[in-house]
Write a structure and sequence with these properties.
Layout: H1 11-26, E1 33-34, E2 43-44, E3 55-63, H2 67-74, H3 80-94, E4 98-108, H4 113-130, E5 133-141, E6 151-162, E7 177-182, H5 191-200, H6 216-220, H7 228-236, E8 242-245, H8 250-256, E9 263-267, H9 276-285, H10 289-295, E10 300-306, H11 311-320, E11 325-333, E12 338-340
Parallel strand pairs: 4-5, 9-12
Antiparallel strand pairs: 1-2, 3-6, 4-6, 7-10, 7-11, 8-10, 9-11
Helix pairs in contact: 1-4, 3-4, 3-7, 8-10
Length: about 350
């Protein structure tokens, strides 16, 4: 007899996963969240937007990429949700938007309730750190398409920004200062290269180099730092002209996206110390500096372009919020490029 369960879909396991994650998801609720008893949709009271003169909705979607493979191999599922939230909400923060709500999607070969609860619980915990509500999501079981221990995650978020407070290229001028904000590690980009190095070199996830606080595997699973509320604090204080979220493509390529055509960003390599994990990967993988620059954040997870007269106040605010930040470079006359010198 053919049944859904015989085909590999365990509905009871899915229901058990929902029960396990409920309390953690509830922590991410905002006052604007409205209960939908059916659970088919997430509801958000947009009358909260009436306080805006001209609200612009901002939206972003992303995944975690091949970092999920390392989480699977290490059997650690409670951090990957932080990576997902960071990748999505920090893109919204670049334009000055406050992240309002988020949804997630998990595809897996087999629903293991505890594993799914860890994944979604991590997403919910990170939403709390970002000040956004996790209003809904979906877990899909794909037997035969994915192996039982395989999974992938994706998410989307919506935010709002006042039209005349929109940050970006048009505010940036020569004489501005570029601030670097420390990453927590590799974040969620470059893991295809990381996995290649692990396959082709002697480096293993179990290694514990003296330069690291733990094993290579633990370092590689360090969750992405979430900058959204820090960025909003700078924006609301009138201390910033533009941000750049340093993701795939590296520091120079991402910062160039926030520059108008008439200026350059000159970034000084001696202004910060690159975290040791990047040097370990470079050494074992014989990775050239140019490839490191265009693949990894190298310790800079977000950059802020601020007026020169606001640099000290911006750095003080970051320090007050526990976010390591420093003067990374400056904006000069140019042609819209960011260069590391």
């Amino acid at each position: 007899m053919s049944t859904y369960e015989a085909a590999g879909v365990d509905i009871a396991a899915g229901e058990r996963a929902v029960e396990l994650m409920k309390s953690r998801v509830a922590r991410s609720r905002r006052p604007e969240c409205v209960e939908d008893a059916s659970g088919f949709a997430g509801l958000f009271d947009v009358s909260a937007l009436l306080k805006y003169r001209r609200p612009l909705l901002a939206t972003s979607t992303d995944g975690v990429g091949t970092k999920v493979d390392l989480a699977r191999r290490l059997g650690r599922y409670d951090t990957i949700g932080h990576d997902l939230v960071g990748m999505v909400v920090d893109d919204l923060a670049v334009c000055g938007a406050e992240p309002l709500f988020m949804t997630d999607y998990i595809a897996c070969g087999k629903v293991v309730p505890e594993r799914i609860a860890d994944l979604v619980g991590g997403i919910a915990d990170a939403c709390v750190l970002a000040g956004t509500a996790l209003v809904g999501g979906e877990t899909a079981e794909h037997p035969g398409l994915l192996e039982p221990d395989e999974f992938d995650v994706a998410g989307a978020a919506t935010g709002v920004v006042e039209a005349d407070e929109l940050l970006g290229q048009d505010r940036v001028v020569a004489g501005d200062v570029v601030l670097g904000m420390a990453s927590s590690g590799i974040h969620s980009n470059g893991y295809s290269l990381v996995r290649h190095i692990l396959r082709e070199s002697s480096l293993t996830l179990e290694d514990a180099p003296a330069e690291l606080a733990g094993t290579v595997g633990e370092e590689l699973l360090t969750p992405t730092r979430i900058y959204a509320l820090d960025c909003l604090a700078l924006a609301r204080g009138g201390l910033v002209h533009a941000f750049a979220h340093i993701t795939g493509g590296g520091l120079a390529a991402n910062l160039a996206r926030s520059l108008p055509s008439g200026v350059d960003a000159v970034l000084r390599r001696d202004s910060w110390t690159v975290p040791p994990i990047f040097q370990i990967l470079a050494s074992h993988g014989q990775v050239a500096q140019a490839d490191l620059d265009k693949t990894f954040n190298l310790g800079v997870g977000m950059a802020a372009i601020v007026p020169a007269e606001a640099a000290d106040a911006a750095l003080a605010l970051c320090a007050e919020r526990g976010l390591p930040a420093w003067v990374l470079g400056e904006i000069t006359e140019g042609s819209g490029k960011a260069v590391l010198v």
